[in-house]
Amino acid sequence: MNKKIAVLPGDGIGPEIVAESVKVLKAVESRFNHKFEYIYGEIGAAAIDDCGEPYPEETHKLCMESDAILFGAIGDPKYDNNPAAKVRPEQGLLKMRKSLGLYANIRPVEIYTKLIDRSPLKESVVKDVDLVVVRELTGGIYFGEPRGRSEDGRRAYDTSLYSDVEIERISRIAFIMARKRKGLVTLVDKANVLATSRLWREVVSNLHKSEYSDVQLDCLFVDNAAMQLVTDPGRFDVILTENMFGDILSDQASVLTGSIGLLPSSSIGTHTPLFEPIHGSFPQGAGKNIANPIATILSAAMLLEGAFDLNAEASAIRKGCEDAINNGILTPELVKEAKAYTTSDIGDYVAEYIAKN
Ligand code: IPM
Ligand code: MN
């Protein structure tokens, strides 16, 4: 199979983890006889430094012309500590999601038995975790207008906005996914307070009744959901939620596994699908070869499966990652007493596993 992949390493540890993911994709090419073309593009702080734009037109063009996008991370402390900055790296990621119409962000959370003692929660609480967060990605308070400051600068406002169409299209993805899993969708909202959440409940319940009544639908307020994610995370299957709640809950859910460095994600919608780790740019770790590349390597697996329908290839990557984990080939954040491995050691290990199996 011949395919074109846009590679956007981004900021912080982005270039290092993406390099390992590309290494693994190259191993897949040789082992399974495919030809992938990798074209690199700029995004985030790196792009601002270069041309003043966090998502340059050239990068957008590259994304539109590619079959899939592999993305690393975005963010730089020099902007985090400067609330007055006019252009911010994060705007690049948001603009990319919006311009490509990537309205559905899929974030699966799985526990590795071998790492269960690394979870901050008791084994009895996390052992049955197998959930996926389906986060709406192009609407809500992230994008609603108007937003800004009052003239005197003393008041600021954001607008949360959702239409029935935006809610319905992502809900379909959640229901269809639940059919292939444990058959349960949990809608997370704040319908006791927010008008947007009441619309979510109405649209999701109607769609459930008319087309997906074979799937079970639960509705939970977000504060309660946050609590249940730490007291009884095994109760969840598919969590369907809006942009902001999904951002927060997916970080929370990710650490149940013991490290935020293990979880991949895919973003799908109108144009080219995007695959990225759910973690950030970890600037303190940049250039040190210590970041965990597993989340980005597993994002490549999601890419092969989701964008190219290459299931055996995706499964080979997943098995390689599992094998690394089971054999203690781990980066420092997951290691207690034993030797820690580097970012590139992990990539080498998974690439070699694929070549040999
Ligand atoms: C994520 C990130 C982004 C978000 C930031 C970097 C804009 O936290 O992908 O979860 O909030 O969506
Ligand atoms: Mn986030």
Rg from alpha-carbon coordinates: 20 Å
C-alpha termini separation: 20 Å
Main beta-sheet strand count, sense and barrel state: 10 strands, mixed
CATH architecture of the largest domain: 3-Layer(aba) Sandwich
Number of strands: 12
Whole-number total of structural domains = 2
Mean pLDDT: 96
CATH class of the largest domain: Alpha Beta
Question: Strand pairing plus helix content: what structural class?
Answer: alpha/beta
**Ligands and ions found:** 3-isopropylmalic acid, manganese (II) ion
Predict the CATH topology of the largest domain.
Isopropylmalate Dehydrogenase
Strand order of the largest sheet: 2-1-3-12-11-4-5-10-8-9
Uncertain segments? none
Summary tags:
alpha/beta, two-stranded antiparallel sheet, ten-stranded mixed beta sheet, 12 strands, 13 helices, 357 residues, Isopropylmalate Dehydrogenase, 2 domains
Could you explain how this protein is built, in words?
The protein has 2 domains: 1-102 and 271-357, Isopropylmalate Dehydrogenase (3-Layer(aba) Sandwich), CATH 3.40.718.10; 120-257, Isopropylmalate Dehydrogenase, CATH 3.40.718.10. It is 43% helix and 20% strand. The chain has helices spanning 14-32, 45-51, 57-65, 77-80, 89-99, 123-126, 164-180, 195-211, 222-231, 243-254, 294-308, 311-326, 343-356, and strands at residues 2-10, 35-40, 68-73, 104-110, 130-136, 144-149, 156-159, 184-189, 216-221, 238-241, 264-268, 274-277. The strands form 2 sheets. Strands 2-1-3-12-11-4-5-10-8-9 form a 10-stranded mixed sheet, with helices on both faces. A two-stranded antiparallel sheet has the order 6-7. α7 (164-180) packs across α8 (195-211), α9 (222-231) runs parallel beside α10 (243-254) and α12 packs across α13 (343-356). The chain is globular and about 55 Å long. The site of manganese (II) ion has 2 residues, from α10.
